[in-house]
Design brief:
The complex is a heterodimer of chains A (507) and B (367). Chain A has 507 residues and is α/β, with parallel strands linked by helices. Chain B is mostly helical and 367 residues long. Chain B has one domain: ABC transporter involved in vitamin B12 uptake, BtuC, CATH 1.10.3470. Chain B contains 15 helices and 4 strands. The longest helix of chain B has 30 residues. The two termini of chain B are 21 Å apart. Classes of the chains: A alpha/beta (507), B mainly alpha (367). Chain B: It holds the Pfam family BPD_transp_2.
Chain lengths: 507, 367
């Protein structure tokens, strides 16, 4: 008897059928992957399973019994927990407080809770599943990778019978992903059902027992991973051959240094030292990747270079001119472009139109502003040309940015950042959460940018991406640069060791 | 079963239909209240409407009650647009009135063309300076501007009372013996009386016209200028504003100063249009600053809508003054205003969400 079984699920939204007669079954004790591109209907399906949406048609059965969830609470009570791609955490609360939030069982459901007990339990779970986080840290102080751990801890704490994870490895290192897979396998061995949503083929083949592939809102197939290859899964998922993990040969003409960091230090949000004596050089025409586990200073590095965070030591030089630091406007004028990690709330003002977001940085310039007045026609023109040139799929420049899909939003951000003819581009996790086709596009723009003479700093936790794109790789660990490798010869194992802080004398 | 769902898209017509619908609902609920309290709804609404908007004398009185609401409404709307919750319009209006009265008294003897602009400038300065206190604290020390500006309202009210009732200040009338027994403000010179514009049979206070002009200026400022663009971005996402190199602190100071200046001009208009002295008791009894927050909320922070809403609420307020008596308790007008606000804020939900009625499907109805 399957633990979860969905029959003929149909869910319509205005203008789209997100799920069109989807069938899905997952057995007790298995890791079952749900594979598909963005927009294939994976999220809708998991939202139905977690009680957030009600299906228009079709039925949901758990352990052979028909259920109808009226709210997410019903699904939680039925033992279904979800780790969302966009975290459902309360930033000012501590890790432990977030873990018990909304939980009504036992200790955490009481009127008065003992924070120490919960903290101890959270710490134990963290140790046991190798996803330790300081239970007393406040969530806003954590990196995205650490926040994801909190989400997983939340489900573990609630002893979910059915765990759904939406793109859980997007912010993990290979080693962390490995250890997560061990966690997931262990949970499955304990008789739970793990539903693993992904569009990363090698992960699916590595961790899942079976895979259900969705395309265009329909079930394409359910296959045993033992009998399939990444190639066969890819063709099921996309309907054509794609590859974003192979190095694309690129004509590299490396020029003079455009970005030089000398002994840069900075403090993190908690006031602790987050960057220590960082020295690196990026030359025109090259892509330098910064690899590292989330929370090892990459975010602070990006913010220091782009002026969003003051430096406490050292100098940052762009195109030969030293920056005073701590001033985003100064960095922008010096020619530093920035694709931020949190594209929806930092990269754009989400409620404002695409047009407004197109000129988010250039509204001060003479082409857009006429004295204190804005030239609305010029803004619209610029937005239309960005939409055409970068193939942004939208109904027009007045659409609020938040209504764009992740890939289209990233095209708006990239298009805007490239339009200022920058010398340096800091790209932080530029493809996180994007589907394969959008990743291809972003990679192409980054390569074109480098070929056009920009110096690009690619901050990423995705080693496939780093190995496919970068010319040089520096590895950060605890706020320091612990090694530098040539991307042609670097291996995942060597990178993984450096990312874990294991440094060997350079041979 | 009733479900509230987030709207996937927000049609444009909603932003007009929802406020109008909210008003209708408020009147329907009010009908119930009137029936329960033994009033005939049709006659009551008729009288309310008559004494607010029908006839030129009624309209003139409505213009006078609408003017301060227009200023305090704009004061709140200007700040709320940037997610700066300036609750201090009340106090900023008092300080504006104090400054403007001082200006008028200091230059007594000069003609109106000099005195009136001076009063406007002084009122704006007073309101802006007073609003800068929460602004500076917010910009540099990250204190909550809601609490600081709210508390400063009490400070301003106490200062106002002190100047008239508890001291022999420059603003207090000390010319006659009875003025010492019944304290009141020193009368302002005639040149400091703001002119009335006559159009048809209507008398438009100068302050009302000035407020409408300011509404237009605010609209241009917020929708057509770099300044307004920055305000929009900061209001929507402070992280994005920092990322784009905007000077957030300066903008907090500027927007709060602008907001306070508008409330301060409202205070000057009270001196010049209506009261012709620093009327401590009258100003603090009226509660214009708080009513302005209601106006801004109903107008969804749109400056032109503020003009309309101020006129509407001013009319209801004016009708309340006229009608209150044995058969019409003054509380009823308060109930009416409260209902309008309540329904308008409830209606906000419908702009972002929709309500779906669906029956629980029987288990066998699988297609």
């Amino acid at each position: 008897m399957p633990a979860v079984s969905l029959h003929g699920i149909t869910k319509r939204f205005p203008g789209v059928v997100a799920n069109d007669g989807v069938d899905f079954e997952a057995a007790e004790g298995e890791v079952h992957a749900l594979l598909g591109e963005n927009g294939a209907g994976k999220s809708t399906l998991s939202n139905i399973l977690t009680g957030l949406y009600r299906p228009d048609e079709g039925s949901v059965e758990l352990y052979g019994e028909r259920v109808e969830f009226d709210s997410p609470r019903d699904a939680l009570n039925a033992g279904i927990c979800m780790v969302h791609q966009h975290f459902r955490l309360v930033p000012p609360f501590t890790v432990a407080e977030n873990v018990i939030l909304g939980d009504t069982r036992g200790e955490s459901g009481r009127f008065l809770v003992h924070p120490r007990h919960i903290e101890r339990r959270v710490a134990e779970l963290g140790e046991r599943y190798r996803i330790a986080v300081d239970p007393r840290a406040r969530v806003w102080q954590l990196s995205l990778g650490e926040q994801q751990r909190v989400e997983i801890l939340k489900a573990l704490y609630r002893e979910a019978k059915i765990l759904i994870l939406d793109e859980p490895t997007a912010v993990l290192t290979p080693q962390e992903a490995e250890s997560l897979f061990i966690t997931l396998r262990a949970m499955a061995a304990e008789g739970r059902t793990v539903i693993f949503i992904s569009h990363k083929l090698h992960e699916v083949t590595a961790v899942a027992d079976r895979v259900t592939v969705l395309r265009g809102g329909k079930t394409v197939a359910t296959v045993d991973t033992a009998e399939s290859t990444t190639q066969s899964l890819a063709s099921l998922m996309v309907g054509r051959e794609v590859d974003v993990a192979t190095r694309v040969p690129r004509e590299i003409t490396i020029g003079g240094p455009v970005l030089e960091l000398a002994g840069v230090g900075a403090t993190g949000d908690r006031g602790a030292e987050a960057l220590h004596d960082v020295t690196m050089t990026v030359r025109s025409g090259e892509i330098v990747a910064v690899a590292g586990v989330a929370g090892n200073g990459q975010r602070e590095l990006a913010e220091a270079i782009t002026g969003m965070r003051p430096t406490t030591a050292g100098t940052i030089t762009v195109d030969g001119k030293p920056l005073k630091g701590g001033d985003a406007r100064e960095a922008i004028h010096a020619g530093v472009a920035h694709v931020p990690e949190d594209r929806l709330h930092t990269g754009v003002a989400p409620s404002l139109s695409i047009a407004s977001n197109t000129v988010l940085k250039s509204y001060r310039g003479a082409q857009i502003a006429h004295g204190p007045l804005l030239r609305l026609s010029a803004i619209k023109e610029r937005a239309l040309s960005l939409i055409t040139n970068y193939d942004v799929r939208t109904s027009g420049p007045n659409v609020p940015a938040r209504q764009l899909s992740g890939g289209n939003l990233q095209k708006v951000v990239l298009g805007r950042e490239f339009s200022g003819e920058p010398r340096v581009l800091i790209a932080a996790s530029p493809t996180r959460g994007l589907d394969v086709s959008a990743i291809e596009t972003v990679h192409r723009y980054l390569r074109e940018g480098a070929t056009g003479g920009m110096g690009i700093v690619l901050i990423s936790e995705d080693l496939d991406e780093i190995l496919a794109l970068a010319d040089r790789i520096v590895v950060m660990y605890e706020g320091r640069i612990v090694g530098e490798l040539d991307a042609e010869t670097a291996t995942k194992d060597a990178l993984g060791l450096l990312m874990a802080g294991v440094t060997e004398p350079v041979a | 079963m009733i479900r509230v769902e987030r709207r996937l898209e927000q049609p444009r017509w909603l932003s007009l239909a929802v406020p109008i619908g909210s008003l209708i609902v408020a009147f329907v609920v009010m009908t119930g209240v009137l029936l329960v309290t033994g009033h005939d709804p049709a006659t009551t609404f008729r009288r309310l409407f008559d004494s607010a908007f029908l006839g030129s004398a009624e309209l003139n009185a409505t213009f006078v009650s609408a003017t301060p609401l227009l200023f305090t409404g704009l004061c709140a709307a200007v700040a709320f647009r940037m997610q700066l919750f300036n609750i201090g319009g009340e106090g900023q209006l008092y300080v504006g009135a104090i400054f403007a009265a001082a200006a008028a008294l200091l230059v007594s003897g000069v003609p109106g063309v000099v005195a009136i602009p001076l009063m406007i400038a002084a009122g704006a300065l007073g309101g802006a300076l007073f609003a800068l206190i929460p602004a500076v604290l917010r910009a540099f020390l990250k204190t909550n501007e809601i609490i600081v500006s709210l508390m400063l309202n009490y400070v301003a009210a106490l200062v106002l009372n002190y100047l008239i009732f508890d001291s022999l200040s420059y603003w207090r009338d000390t010319s006659s013996p009875e003025a010492k027994v019944f304290p009141q403000g020193k009368p302002l010179p005639d040149a400091a009386s703001w002119p009335l514009s006559h159009i048809g049979g209507l008398e438009l206070p100068f302050g009302l016209l000035l407020g409408i002009v300011i509404a237009g200026v605010v609209w241009v400022l917020y929708s057509r200028t770099r300044f307004g663009f920055e305000v929009q971005v900061i209001g929507d996402s402070p992280r994005a504003a920092t990322y784009a190199g905007m000077r957030t602190r300066r903008k907090i100071l500027a927007v709060m100063a602008l907001s306070g200046a508008i409330a301060g001009i409202g205070g000057a208009s009270q001196d010049g249009d209506v009261r012709h002295l620093l009327d401590a008791r009258g100003l603090s009894a009226a509660g214009y600053g708080y009513a302005g927050i209601v106006v801004a909320a109903l107008a969804r922070y749109n400056p032109f809508a503020v003009v309309l809403v101020a006129f509407l609420l001013g009319g209801i307020q004016n009708a309340g003054y006229t009608l209150q008596g044995a058969d019409f308790p003054s509380g009823l007008v308060g109930v009416m205003q409260g209902l309008i606000l309540f329904c308008a804020l409830g209606g906000e939900l419908l702009i972002r969400h929709r309500i779906r009625f669906e029956r629980r499907r029987p288990a066998e109805s699988v297609a």
